[in-house]
Amino acid sequence: MDLQTQKLILIEQLLHVDDSTVINKVREILDNSESNTIGYELTGQPISKRDLLKKIEVAEKEFKEGKYQTIDEVGKESEGW
């Protein structure tokens, strides 16, 4: 059975569930699956999808606020190292 078929069967089963406890457990499982490690920081620290999305949001906000350096600025700064 392929993944798409499994998803459709699960959706149909969920449509017939009348117990909010079951729905909450399924939601919890799905929410926790987003916390799984999807990569690693340069330090070797694992990073989750949720954490990566948060970092992206912060970076986009900082960029919009002008809190960034151009490649030329970084080049000039690095000359003094």
Topology:
Layout: H1 3-15, H2 20-33, E1 37-40, E2 46-48, H3 49-64, H4 71-79
Characterize the structure shown:
This protein has 81 residues and is mainly alpha-helical. The protein has one domain (3-79). Helix content is 64%, strand content 9%. It is built from four helices and two strands; from the N terminus they run ααββαα. The chain has helices at 3-15, 20-33, 49-64, 71-79, and strands spanning 37-40, 46-48. Strands 1-2 form a two-stranded antiparallel sheet. The chain starts with a helix and ends with a helix.
Features of this protein?
two-stranded antiparallel sheet; elongated; 4 helices; mainly alpha; 81 residues; 64% helix
In short:
This protein has 81 residues and is mostly helical.
Largest sheet: 2 strands, antiparallel
Helix run count: 4
Kindly report the spatial arrangement of strands forming the biggest sheet: 1-2
N/C terminus separation: 59 Å
The run of helices and strands is: HHEEHH
Number of domains: 1
Instruction: Tell me the strand percentage band.
Output: 5-15%
Low-confidence stretches: none
User: Structural class of the helix and strand makeup?
Assistant: mainly alpha
